[in-house]
Amino acid sequence: MTEPITLSQEEASELMRSLLHKEGSWVEWGNSCQTLQKAGYSPQNIFEETGFQASQQNLVIVAAQVYESLVKNQAQEELLSYYQGPKSDILYELRILNHEQRLAAAELAKAKQLEIEDAHDLAKSFQEFSRITQIPSGFTRHPGDAVAYQCWKRARQKKDLQDRSRLIARGLKFAHSVAAREALEQLLMDFTVSAATKSAPLLPVYRLEDSEEMARIVPVIGSLPLTKDNLESVPSLTATEPFKMVQSSVLGCLVPLPGWPVVLKAADPVAFLATSGQLPRSISGKSEQVLVIVDRSAREWSENSYFLAERDGQLEILWFESIPDLALLGKLLLILRPQNIVDEENLTEPWQMDD
Asked: pLDDT tens digit string along 270-328?
């Protein structure tokens, strides 16, 4: 997570002015854009003041980070000078590699005078090759051999001689080791077409887009009737970002609730079970078990809310027209009814249609 920083108005104005006049190298532009964004300036704000579009800001910020990784890996001054040339678009393509791989790939890209498309292919091939547990015979971990291997593998699967020859020529352009060159040259005489190798399936990656997709875990203190001791005996739960993980040292019952705003805002929510008949007002429908969620930290009276209080030794959900004499033990957040399944028996039977 990016740490925010504080900039004075004068400092921010000076960075904006420098970007507007494109002073310094593109590396400095990237650092300035990143500094402004960390200080709370949106890409749109920066664009309006400097003319740097959001996509351009992203490119120079990321490329500058790649450049800094080359500096940290003690890249030669000649290489660093080459990429200040400017070559921000080439370094941007190397962002998917780790620091050591970036240096090796940057050296090869300079030696081969690669343009964006070739740099993109280099980075992708190098990344995929690095994941291979056992290096194929004849190839090394050099980024040139990584591209050569991809060309060699694809060429072996081509029936069309023109496509096959094009891939072999590209592989020979990048091949670093003598053995890799020999493997490619062998394909010029061996026209056997090999079956395509199976690729590993895509990883089932998801990203949470909405807070409601993330459940909040709430401790359950029991079922009515309950006492004040029952309410206070259950410890609070603290969620750890970014996945709202909860660790509890006390064994007990927990319930997941949708990430509704009223649930997420609660400082110390707990839940307990009750029947609809135990509620202070009747609710429509048949009598059923419900889950009552209360925020123990919300104890300031309001005429628009129900509160939990102890009366005659037992907890009750009550509404007070004015400030009560009873101690308020928590504010009622919501009452959750179970999912309404219209025909439970029908769900267990095979689906049928009339002819």
From this structure: 999 998 888 888 787 778 899 999 999 999 999 999 999 998 889 999 999 999 989 99
Instruction: Please list, in sequence order, all residues whose beta carbon lies within 8 angstroms of the beta carbon of residue 135, skipping any fewer than 6 positions away.
Output: 141
What predicted TM-score, i.e. pTM, was given to this entire model?
0.57
Per-residue confidence (pLDDT) for residue 348, from 0 to 100:
52
What is 1-115's CATH number, 1.10.150, 1.20.1460, 1.20.1410, 1.10.10? 1.10.10
Helix 54-72 and helix 26-38: axis angle, to 10°?
110
Burial class from Cβ neighbours inside 10 Å (0-12, 13-18, 19+) for residue 292 reads: buried
Q: Where in the chain is the domain with CATH 2.10.109?
A: 211-336
CATH 1.10.10 residue window(s) in the chain: 1-115
Cα–Cα dist 330/207, whole Å:
34
Tell me the C-alpha distance between 297 and 266, whole Å: 8
Look at domain 211-336 and name its CATH class: mainly beta
